[in-house]
Amino acid sequence: MAPTTGPRVGILCEQAGEALAERAARYGVADVLARIVAAASRGEVAEPDLDRLDSAFAQHGIDHLTRGNRSFEPWRGAREVVVTAWECPTGACSRAATGEQPSCRLTGQPFREIRVEL
User: Fold this and answer.
1) Residue 96 pLDDT
2) 67 three-class SS
């Protein structure tokens, strides 16, 4: 996962789907979204493409498409609890989940299993 783009790709991945693709086409950035999806499959998304997507959506009143307003900070201290989780199959984003194995909404690939110390 790229340190600067990973969190942004994760936010985008959670919003991916038919509605996002339709809006990207309507806003003239379907090609940019397609490049992001292809790059996510390789595990390397270019920040300028995320910026272009954000700008196009912002022009239509949708601010911060790929930027969240919260961040994760690991718990401090000893970690004795370990859970099985799922993470981005390509490493392109920071998305992780517990429960049933999800798939990447950008690439369609199933998430890979990881063990997380809490």
Assistant:
1) 85
2) coil
